[in-house]
């Protein structure tokens, strides 16, 4: 992670649903966030393009729709934030090194599943199965996000449900807050399963610098 989303914000989750979860920092389940990187429709739109969730054509369609109907932009943002928190509430307890705050979470896990399913059902109703005889595999394409107004939350909730259905729990990790990390979730796909930090360039480097400083202070006493 970095201190500024508008600067060198890193996409490190390894999956769109985890990248969405990581738009809050630090991430402690039930704890207060210092920074929320999605506080406006404009930030959501920029993040969606930056993360690869949408392409340039999608960006233009969503931006035009939201500009002409700002209330739809706010609705999409609120839906996205609900999906984000529900996804985190479901995945965090199963992520290695995740920190659960003493006061727990605002919503129960059962409620989180329910919220995701309601959003997923609405997204499915707006999706289309389009025949494509030119495909090498399968005979049709599932297009999620046919309505520009809700394209971003629709794609995110479908991605979240798919991740929850298929995630290999041994790969699901949280950047260790207790050791100076940010709590972001990520998939450890390293060959030996040794990835510890969301990013060595950020949290990993800061942890090393902090430990080096502690050792130097200890030897100087």
Radius of gyration: 19 Å
The number of E-state strands comes to 6
Question: How far is the first residue's CA from the last residue's CA?
Answer: 33 Å
Helical fraction equals 40-55%
**Number of discrete helical segments:** 7
**SSE string:** HEEHHHHEEHEEH
Largest sheet: 2 strands, antiparallel
Q: Describe the global form.
A: globular
CATH A-level architecture: Orthogonal Bundle
Residue runs with pLDDT of under 50 for 5 or more positions: 1-7
CATH topology: Jann2411-like fold
Write out the CATH superfamily name.
Answer: Jann2411-like domain
The level 1 CATH classification is: Mainly Alpha
The mean pLDDT is 85
Instruction: Indicate the proportion of strand residues.
Output: 5-15%
Oligomeric organization of the protein chains: single chain
